[in-house]
Amino acid sequence: MANNEESRGLKSLFDWFANRRKSGPTSLERQEREIADGLWHKCSKCSVLAYTKDLKANQMVCIECGHHNRVDSDERIRQLIDNNTWKPLDEHLRPTDPLEFRDRKLYSDRLRETQDKIGLIDAVHTGLGQINALPIALGVMDFRFMGGSMGSVVGEKLTRMIEQATQRRYPVVIICTSGGARMQEGMLSLMQMAKISAALQRHKDARLLYIPVLTNPTTGGVTASFAMLGDIILAEPKATIGFAGRRVIEQTLREKLPENFQTAEDLLQHGFVDDIVPRTQLKNTLTQLIALHQPVLTPPHMVLWETMSLTSTAAE
Predict the structure, then answer these.
(1) Beta strands of the chain (E only): which ranges?
(2) DSSP type of residue 167
(3) What is the pLDDT of residues 196-239, one digit of tens each?
(4) Rounded to two decimals, what is the model's pTM?
(5) Integer CA distances (angstroms), 247 to 146, 261, 266, in order
């Protein structure tokens, strides 16, 4: 009798383990499916799972450790620009393949595949809008498009935006994220550095404000040109900022670089960056800087009224 009870108990225990093995992969698959569907987001730094809706409400900044997850250009615009005030510029400009460049595949094929995959024509959005009711010209680079590389279209769109801002007397803000110049366009890509810099010089001569915001990563020809030409240079926490890559520099110098090398914090310490601003505070910080530095144009009728008041007072 006892043996039968023991065998039944042993059998039920085996059944329990067998059922658990069967249900294990299913529950794991279900969990992976939920994460893949975008319900949850696992932080790449602290590995904490966060509800995606809460993470987006915090502008894709990890609530646990403060890690700034990469966001696309459309999301950046939503975070910074007031509702119903965004006016895109030069959306019709498209990249071409003048050099008929080929590496592992044709540059023209690579462009078409990237455009179809992420729905962008090139690696930057430009436009006019308002930030807390203040007018602004905004350029936002997108790392998803060939590493945010700076080709002819990126340079042309940024240059035209800066010229529009100079004409309208708007401040310029560029959100930088890039791997540098686009090698598939050769010298044509490098020429964009000078073209954008010249437009920024004219903007500066008009005594107008330019603020670049350096996000992770900002490297290569972008760092060597318009990313470092701002009146006030801001950066996001822990952003990688530099020209050549860390490995290239170590091989050239033949010595180990510090752990914090080419980080926003290191650049702030050495005076290359003016301030590090968390993404959740960026809109208010930009608003304060623009309000402080942009000239306030006094309406002509107010000047006339003050002149008449002073004249009548003097007469009395």
Answers:
(1) 40-42, 49-51, 87-88, 124-131, 134-141, 172-178, 210-218, 234-235, 275-276
(2) H
(3) 999 999 999 999 999 999 999 999 999 999 999 999 999 999 99
(4) 0.81
(5) 21, 11, 17
